[in-house]
Model the fold of this input.
Amino acid sequence: MAQEAMYEGHKGQLDTNDNDAVSRREYQAFMATAFGKLDADNDGSLSQAETPNILSANQFATTDANGDGRVSRDEFMNRVMKDFAAADKDGDGRLQ
Done:
């Protein structure tokens, strides 16, 4: 996922306590809400048709860990939290 671009584009929404940093908890809450908004048919998973402007076909396939053609909430959250960890260069649990 384009984590850096997503972070910069949504920093104001992510940083809910206005401390100029996004904590792991803030990021996780934002992404859980994002999943709910993306799940247009409310079936608890995402199809590629629900994510065309968010995930490329390759990103979708990578996120779909079990290869069933759907991205479950757990698969989605696992992927975005790995992205958070990768972006957290100093390992302090915050993005600045």
Q: What stands out?
A: The two ends are 18 Å apart (CA to CA). Residues 3-95 form a domain with the Recoverin; domain 1 fold (CATH 1.10.238).
